[in-house]
Write a sequence for this structure.
């Protein structure tokens, strides 16, 4: 329905609520479902006329009082399993994000009990009336099959616990000999993690999906805390938002949502006027778009605009975020004619425009072009958002990506910002004590600060040792100058690095440019993500960036005495560290393991014939590790090579998961927790592989960088043989570093150990064999650090020519697999 535009209207911001996208066969009698064709038309129209944003961004814009005209967010209640099919495909088709609210107590149930009750009602109404125990519990149920009786019983049953409601439905079905089939169902434990992957994000809908307004204080707290805990355990991060079941909330419910740590909560509105009021972040209205044809959907959205116009003329202030545009400005928001856009992309003819298409970074047309780069940067380093966290103005990214135990503060110079827990000037942070925070999230702020040197110095002061500053800054951009949003600076990678270097760990300082000529040109013209080909975002040209990012860590010296907690009797993870002449680095490596937030691990250090003080250092640390560290060696203390050394440790490992860490590398404090959560949620997956920061530890200065693991997009399961084919046959990106893995020991036991004949590539052959037998989870998280130095096994192999020989042998092995494996033969 792209032909029908609403651009002449004010397009007030709106949050939509759906339940399920399903065919009649999938949903049975459920009247809340919308057919896939109708949903496709809804999203087509919505993305043509609105800027569809994640709910996180929508609420962040509300809290920071940003421009929101034409902004929309999509939500789903109920966590219907069938939304992983047609709904997900349609959302991906139009690149539209959505938030799914999960009722924790319904996960894994075979149906929704109220749908089952409705399907049974014609048969069981009379049975209900004559059953003494049923009549005693529900005395007002009339002996008829009409809708009033069903409505009354459903309302009564919503006061029951989840188990009681399902038990009663099963009893009724058994009483009339009915089989409950062809009913929509909630997602199960295996399906649930998919609601945290594009195009979805997740929120909470309580536990029992029952009205909160009728609960006792203890029951109310259980709904918020119980669902928060359940989802945090399943997804590895807390839900940011809450959906009040049936849209019903009172002051106590809103306060409970705040106390539980949610950054916003949504209702369901009743009437157009209530859909326009975004005054309370914990009572945000959502509009029911209907489940009928596109005409009804468009009429509902137009009604919002009409009511908003009437309210403005009446000087009402119910929709302060709907900004009226002058005719002169409105001309800048009109769609770029198709022929003009084609001339840009196909004929390479740049229109000679003296004015941009839009003056709000493309926000009038859709999603700003810098957002995908910023979001990917935050996603990659989400593990850093832990402990005590500081973000500016609103929890736009920390709220969505912080670790479950994080404590988030919001800083703003404006005392009227209701989200601000710290009111201060970023340039001094005078009210904040030294070494207060573990992470500071600073996105698109630094260019607006007059004194950037004082700002960075202050932020370094309030970070704890080992704390991380995550920075994004504008590069090639419009120099907007309006009240409250003045741009003072623009940054390139080298400039941002120079600014940060004096205060942070310079060798590990990671600065990256994002964008290219096409993206930069489109950004300046005011185009949006929806206007450009998706593959443009995979190309970075450091000479034409639109945004630069930095991960800066405050130096953390290795202490003289490492603190260890008591070793577990049955460790879940075995960390395997082969060691050869690593007296300079082994203590730092072990310190990185000691700092893990996940506590159930053992460490197996295997000395491979070291001739320096490595073994002595490792044994001294083991003696004070409370049983955490076991130091092994080959008979006679000889050197037998990396493969056999790892194999010795694997034979002794007690954990169900194995991590391989070289004696000169380190892992992030959240590495074990992150990977265990993924493997627990996906029992068929053999290994998690991620990304690593490669940094230089030698003479001179070399930039740190992140390895480019292929198989985009990340954060998904890859079945055999796709991982093998993309990584080793087609060589799409860098193969994951061995210490970025966590592998399931029961799967490793079914393949050959590390090849003792291979001097290099032994780790990649091992992972390749694993990926041919089992699914692999590829993660975007960067939770490892790989030390590059002037002399190492890999460097020496390159210098001697051994690497070239080993690579040739490895490629021969890969090609032989490709030519003989049934996977590739069948294709």
């Amino acid at each position: 329905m792209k032909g029908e535009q609403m651009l002449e209207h004010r397009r007030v911001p709106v949050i939509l609520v759906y339940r399920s996208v399903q065919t009649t066969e999938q949903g049975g009698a459920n009247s809340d479902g919308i057919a896939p064709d109708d949903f496709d038309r809804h999203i087509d129209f919505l993305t043509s006329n609105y800027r569809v944003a994640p709910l996180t961004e929508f609420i962040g814009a509300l809290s920071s009082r940003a421009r929101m005209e034409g902004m929309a967010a999509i939500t789903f209640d109920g966590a219907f399993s069938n939304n992983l099919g047609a709904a997900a495909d349609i959302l991906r088709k139009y690149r539209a994000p959505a938030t799914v609210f999960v009722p924790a107590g319904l996960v894994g149930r075979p149906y929704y009990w109220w749908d089952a009750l409705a399907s049974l009602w014609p048969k069981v109404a009379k049975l209900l009336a004559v059953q003494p125990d049923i009549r005693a519990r529900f005395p007002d149920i009339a002996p008829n099959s009409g809708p009033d009786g069903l409505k009354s019983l459903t309302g009564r049953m919503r006061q029951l616990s989840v188990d009681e409601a399902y038990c009663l439905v099963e009893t009724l079905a058994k009483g009339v000999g009915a089989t409950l089939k062809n009913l929509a169902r909630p997602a199960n434990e295996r399906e649930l993690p998919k609601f945290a992957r594009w195009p979805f994000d997740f929120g909470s809908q309580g536990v029992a999906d029952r009205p909160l307004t009728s609960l006792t204080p203890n029951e109310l707290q259980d709904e918020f805390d119980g669902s928060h805990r359940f989802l945090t355990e399943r997804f590895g991060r807390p839900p940011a938002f809450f959906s009040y079941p049936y849209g019903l909330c009172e002051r106590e419910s809103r306060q409970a949502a705040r106390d539980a740590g949610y950054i916003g909560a949504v209702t369901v509105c009743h009437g157009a006027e209530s859909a326009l009021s975004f005054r309370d972040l914990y009572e945000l209205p959502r509009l029911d778009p209907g489940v009928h044809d596109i005409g009804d959907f468009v009429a509902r959205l137009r009604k919002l605009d009409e009511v908003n116009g009437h309210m403005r003329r009446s000087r009402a202030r119910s929709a302060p975020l709907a900004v009226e545009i002058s005719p002169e400005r409105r001309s800048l928001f009109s769609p770029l004619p198709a022929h003009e856009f084609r001339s840009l992309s196909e004929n390479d003819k740049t229109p000679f425009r003296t004015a941009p298409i839009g003056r709000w970074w493309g926000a009038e047309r859709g999603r700003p072009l810098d957002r995908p780069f910023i979001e990917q940067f935050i996603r990659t380093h989400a593990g850093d958002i832990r402990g005590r966290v500081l973000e500016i103005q609103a929890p736009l990214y920390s709220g969505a990506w912080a670790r479950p135990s994080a404590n988030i503060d919001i800083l703003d110079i404006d005392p009227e910002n209701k989200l601000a827990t710290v009111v201060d000037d970023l340039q001094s942070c005078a009210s904040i004590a030294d070494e207060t925070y573990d992470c500071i999230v600073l996105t698109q702020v630094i260019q607006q600060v007059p004194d950037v040197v004082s700002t960075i110095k202050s932020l370094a002061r309030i970070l704890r040792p080992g704390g991380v500053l995550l920075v994004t800054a504008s590069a090639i951009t419009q120099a907007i100058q309006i009240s409250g949003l003045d741009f003072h600076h623009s940054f390139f990678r080298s400039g941002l690095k120079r600014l940060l270097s004096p205060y942070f760990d310079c060798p590990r300082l990671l600065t990256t440019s994002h964008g290219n000529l096409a993206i930069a040109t489109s950004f300046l013209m005011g185009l949006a993500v929806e206007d450009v080909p998706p593959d443009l975002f995979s190309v970075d040209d450091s000479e034409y960036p639109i945004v630069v990012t930095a991960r800066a860590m405050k130096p953390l010296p290795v202490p003289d005495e490492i603190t260890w907690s008591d070793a577990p009797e049955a460790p879940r993870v075995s960390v395997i560290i082969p060691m050869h002449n690593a007296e300079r680095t082994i203590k730092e490596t072990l310190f990185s393991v000691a700092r893990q937030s996940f506590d159930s691990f053992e460490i197996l250090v295997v000395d491979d014939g070291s001739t320096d003080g490595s073994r002595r250092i490792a044994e001294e640390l083991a003696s004070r590790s409370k049983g955490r560290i076991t130091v092994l060696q080959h008979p006679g203390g000889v050197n037998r090579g990396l493969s056999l050394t790892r194999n010795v440790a694997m034979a002794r490992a007690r954990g169900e998961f194995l991590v391989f860490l070289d004696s000169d590398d380190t892992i992030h404090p959240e590495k074990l927790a992150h990977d265990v959560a993924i493997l627990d949620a996906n029992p068929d997956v053999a290994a998690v592989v991620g990304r690593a920061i490669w940094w230089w530890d030698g003479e001179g200065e070399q930039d740190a960088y992140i390895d480019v693991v292929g198989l985009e997009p990340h954060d998904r399961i890859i079945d055999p043989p796709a991982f093998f084919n993309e990584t080793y046959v087609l060589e799409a990106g860098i193969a994951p570093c061995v210490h970025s893995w966590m592998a399931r020991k029961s799967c490793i036991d079914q393949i050959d150990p590390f090849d003792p004949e291979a001097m290099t590539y032994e780790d990649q052959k091992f992972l390749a064999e694993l990926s041919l037998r089992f699914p692999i989870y590829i993660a975007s998280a960067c939770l490892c650090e790989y030390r590059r130095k002037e002399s190492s096994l890999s460097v020496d192999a390159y210098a001697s020519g051994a690497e070239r020989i080993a690579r040739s042998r490895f490629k021969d092995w890969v090609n032989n697999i490709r030519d003989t494996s049934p996977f590739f033969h069948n294709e």
